[in-house]
Amino acid sequence: MASTSSGVPRKRTTKRKHVEPEPPPLPQPEPVPEPEHELDLEMQLFQQFRQFESDDDDYDELVGRLSPEESDDEYLEHADEPPAEDPEAEEVNPFRPKRALRAVNSVDTSLDPENYDPWTLPHPPEEYTVVVEKPKRNDPGKSIHWETAQPQARGRQNIANVLAGIPGVNRNARHADTPVKAWGCFFSDDMLAVVLTNTNKKINKYLSNLTPEVRNSDKNSYLREASATEIRALLGMLYYRGMLGQNLLDVKWLFGDRVGHPVFGATMSKNRYKFLLTKLSFDDKDTRPERWRNDRFTAFRELHDLLNRNCAEALIPSDFITIDETLYPMRSGISFRQYNRSKPAKYGLLFRSLNDARHPYTFFSLPYAGKPTGDHPTHHYVTGTEEVVKYLINQMEEHRQLRGCNLTIDRLCTSLPLTEWLFEKGITVTGTIQTNRKGLPQEMKTTDGREEHSYKVAWFRENKNASLHSYVVNTKSSGTKNVLLVTSMKPTSESQKTMGNRSRLHTNCTTTQRGGRTSLINGQ
Question: Helices in 350-411 by DSSP H: which ranges?
Fold first, then answer.
């Protein structure tokens, strides 16, 4: 103890901490006794119903709709009838404008002539001339002539309007009467062999660096080569994980007894699942650096080519096909990851694909992997939107004939030379086109003096195969907009019928969505 100058000891003082008083306990609800018999449970339910009857103001009105003399059969008859519409009822969102219901909203309805109103061509016909290449000393130049007179059908039907083959499932895929066989049509045995060979090679390289004591330990029994059955089971678990929406769930919770699904623990152990995921490989990693110089997608190229082959051979295309691009969500640190702020995912892997417009099916796809660093890039490296269309068509025709099909593309791909190239192959095309493309007359591109929903059409005078359509519409973002469309199909001189208050003029196409992809379908 401390002492003062007089020698009297002094007590040491300590500061007390301020302690908040504990709040009073909350009132606990009275426990509801569990019913001992089934009769007690029925009494509780009856009391709850009586409480609902006394509290609900609309209960008497609801019961008063039926008279006491009505039987149960009459009540069921009234219950099947739709409720009467109240003309004075307000809309859910009165500030949202009503959209006109279009009679043409699918492929089949676009081909029905009953869904169109007659439209008269201008008289007398007009002619437009576009100079594509100016004449030089030894070159007369090149010009394109358009006319508004509709060509007359003469002679035999063009080969581009005759479909080759019967659309549907291919002969080799008709044996798939179970889900496993149907999956095997796309993920074939040779694809499974590629995954199994490269995965085991990676596993053996890892095991060679371990000591025999570690490899032969009972705790490390999961350190072994994979089998074909295990690879199939692993892929099935990944399917199941995505179906349950547990892609972001940690593996320890995925195999947990309370959170995870029992199918994961019943298939394989947690350590084996993690080990196979880390060692899963789709190519030879030793030769990858050399192949990557000419193909930046080489880590998955072999498996992707086999998948394209199986998808192209499993189904025969229908009469309407389309080419579009898809941004698959992904945030991995790869150099060819794309960014598009108009897409929901923003970041992802860009695929250009050839699809069926009547069914949600993809025949062939081309991933964008960037420019190779080597001097000899493979044929998978394609530059330009028109070259992408030609690549997909040529690759698809190695497995299936596309003669007689109508191809739908967007404005980034459509051009007059591409339309002629496709028509020579027996493929018609329909797609919007940009106004800065060569060969388009100024009279069709301008919007001066044209009213909203006004429509013009002109035919290619040289071969009468292509036609150019112009449709003017007012938009809130860009004002008056001129929508140009090029097609090599026989167009209709009619406008689409509408079932709403606002009349809208549509040319020879309608917009449909099949499998998440938008297609412009030509109506005949």
Answer: 385-397
Query: Do residues 419 and 429 lie in contact, with contact meaning Cβ atoms separated by under 8 Å?
Result: yes
Contact assessment for residue 254 and residue 264, using Cβ atoms and an 8 Å cutoff:
yes
Helices (H), 140-217: 179-184, 189-207, 212-215
Long-range contacts of 508-511 (CB under 8 A, 24+ apart): 508/469, 509/110, 509/430, 509/469, 509/485, 510/102, 510/104, 510/105, 510/106, 510/109, 510/110
Res. 512: pLDDT tops 50: no
Please state, in angstroms and rounded to a whole number, the distance separating the CA atoms of residues 307 and 500: 45
Q: Average pLDDT of the chain?
A: 78
- Per-residue model confidence as pLDDT tens digits over 151-208: 776 666 676 776 777 788 888 788 888 999 999 999 999 999 999 999 999 999 999 9
Give CA separation, 448 vs 226, 444, 452, 454, 457, in Å: 70, 10, 11, 12, 16
Can you tell me the mean pLDDT for 70-98? Answer: 51
Q: Indicate whether 51 pLDDT > 60.
A: no
Structure tokens that stand for 511 in this block: 């917009």
Q: How far from chain centre, in Å, is Cα 231?
A: 27
Return the percent helix, strand and coil in the chain, to nearest 5. Answer: 30, 20, 50
User: How does pLDDT run across 439-464, given as a tens digit for each residue?
Assistant: 899 988 888 888 888 888 898 887 77
Which residues contact residue 437 at a Cβ distance below 8 angstroms, ignoring those fewer than 6 apart?
Answer: 414, 415, 416
Strand partners, 324: 353
End-to-end CA distance of the chain: 108
The single residue listed with the structure tokens 């039907």 is 157
Asked if 301 and 381 count as a contact pair (C-beta separation under 8 A), the reply is no
Q: Which amino acid is present at 301?
A: R
CA dihedral 197, 203, 206, 212 (to 10 degrees): -120
Q: Show Cβ contacts of residue 116 under 8 Å, excluding neighbours closer than 6 positions.
A: 104, 492, 494, 495, 496, 497, 523
pTM of the shown model? 0.72
CA atoms of 328 and 233, how far apart (whole Å): 25
10-26 core/surface letters (b: 16 or more CB in 10 A; e: else):
eeeeeeeeeeeeeeeee
Residue 384 falls in which region: left (phi positive, over 0), alpha (psi -120 to 50) or beta: left
In whole angstroms, give the CA distance from residue 108 to residue 95: 33
Across 335-415, where does the E strand assignment appear? 338-339, 347-356, 361-367, 406-409
Element (H, E) at 432: strand 428-432
DSSP for 265-306, please give it: HHHS-HHHHHHHHHH--SS-SSSHHHHHTT-TTTTTHHHHHH
Three-state SS for 316? strand
CA pair distance 90, 306, nearest whole angstrom = 57
Residues in the chain, total: 524
Kindly tell me the sign of the dihedral angle through the C-alpha atoms of 255, 256, 262, 265.
positive
